[in-house]
Amino acid sequence: MLTQKPEKMEISNMDISSVSDGTYVGRADNGFVKAAVSVEVSDGKLKSITILEHDTLLGRPGEKIIDDIVEQQSLEVDAVSSATYSSDTIRKAVENALKKGE
């Protein structure tokens, strides 16, 4: 396992104002880290993100990224130091959730 690398995730920023109001669930899996999130959108803004599942190596601190995403209303936030794979997987799960509301 030490010689393998997680799958690279391409994360696209989304225009949150174009997402319909609602609560959406998204999932992502990079081969090592899995995440599932619930995302609430209201009035064109991210209101909250809840982590439903996060199977991780040592990236539990990456869960803090949800606060940055909500605060900045953007997926273009810096990964949490020493939890890059978890941060990216969580961001991808949020993107996948938001796509359901387009």
Automatic annotation (TrEMBL):
One of its Pfam families is FMN_bind
**InterPro entries attached here?**
FMN-bd
The molecule here is called FMN-binding protein
Q: Which residues form the FMN-binding domain?
A: 28-101
Source organism of the structure: Blautia celeris
